[in-house]
Amino acid sequence: MSNDRFYKGMKVRREVLGDAHVDRAEAAKTDFDLQFQTLITEGAWGTVWAGDGISRRERSMITLALLAATGNFEEIPMHIRATARTGASKQDVLEAFQHVAIYAGVPKANHALKLAKATYAEMEEQDQ
Fold first, then answer.
1. Distances (CA, A) of 74 to 38, 65, 68, 77, 114
2. Spatial distance between the Cα atoms of 107 and 92, rounded to a whole number of angstroms
3. Are 55 and 90 in contact, with CB atoms under 8 Å apart?
């Protein structure tokens, strides 16, 4: 793991998801999923999220829309929490999910909005 892309990816991952999340994920890593976790760190975080072509705010909106559109709902709360670090507002997220409703289906957007609302409520509760 002396790969620059891995280290860059880990830095970006921590900046977007927060140290606590990454520390939990790293602690759960085993020999079985080490190669997969490395792939995610290098590919998603060290390449895609580390790019300078669009902002992290825009990446958050695109990621949330893609997760919802493809029905990969389990990662939506994690990426909603990340918006606190990427600058994507609640309105940005709503706009992204409205696109999902039109182009991928209302039920997917509706479920994504339900998850977002619950996650935002948890975040607000933690801030109090």
1. 20, 13, 10, 7, 12
2. 19
3. no
Residue 43 is classified by DSSP as I
Ramachandran region, residue 30 (left: φ > 0; alpha: ψ -120 to 50; beta: rest): beta
Distance CA 38, CA 5 (A): 10
Answer yes or no: are the C-beta atoms of 40 and 97 closer than 8 Å.
Answer: no
What pLDDT is stored for residue 76 in this prediction?
98
Q: 57 is written with which tokens?
A: 């705010």
Helices (H), the chain: 4-17, 19-28, 34-40, 56-69, 76-86, 90-103, 106-127
Q: Which of 22, 110, 103, 6 is nearest to 62 (CA)?
A: 103
Angle between helices 4-17 and 19-28 (to 10 degrees): 120
- State residue 2's pLDDT score: 56
Confidence (pLDDT) at 127: 84
**Ranges of the chain whose pLDDT falls below 50:** 1
